[in-house]
Amino acid sequence: MINLLRFKQTAAYDFLHNNWNGFLSLLYPNTCEICSGETTERAPFICFGCDNELDYTHYERSVEHTPCDELFWGRVPILQAYALLFFRTGSSTQKVLHAIKYKGAKDLAVDFGGRLGSRLANTRYLENVDAIVPIPLHSKKEFSRGYNQSELIGRGLADKSGIPVVHLLKRKRHHASQTKKDRFDRWDNVADIFMVNQRVKAHYSHVVLVDDVLTTGATLEAAARTLIQQYPTIKVSIFTLAIAK
Length: 245
Known about the structure:
41% of the residues lie in helices and 15% in strands. It has 245 residues and is an alpha/beta fold.
């Protein structure tokens, strides 16, 4: 014990203490989730090159309705909708979403939820929002995957915005993958799959539904419709990491 205390008072201890993370990065370097190249300590998940290739929508700058808003017109009353990135096959965005959804990249999901929050800070999108509601997975799918990517994205958004994550929705049944279905089949596939979580007693006036990608919007429409049917005066917005283009 005395030797340890003496060591803590030496210059060698100070050097190791101040540079420990640097030593660890030399032994176990962080690698990019997209290209597997080396990343930096400040940006441990995606390298600068891949990050630079991400196609941001910049919808937060728009004063007009965006394609996200228009997708829900005539279907369900959505206050405002937003997507952080454009999704194209083979793009860096697709690789980010694939890593988040299928490769266990949980920290990446939280990181991009934080990016979402940073982009929307001090914008109209976060005005009067009192809850972040992740799109729930069925318990079997969440168990097999080990996490719900929408919840992790919501957690990153919450970290930046200070708005709490609330599990206001539950999934009643499992549904087949939406990947190869057209718009009408997707709606039939997700109709009536959500229910309000009766354990949540507080009433919320404006909530944000959070998911990873917006394609036809069928799942998000079903979730929003469930909330509005239960709480007729509630305002619902929708945020996703990406929108298909």
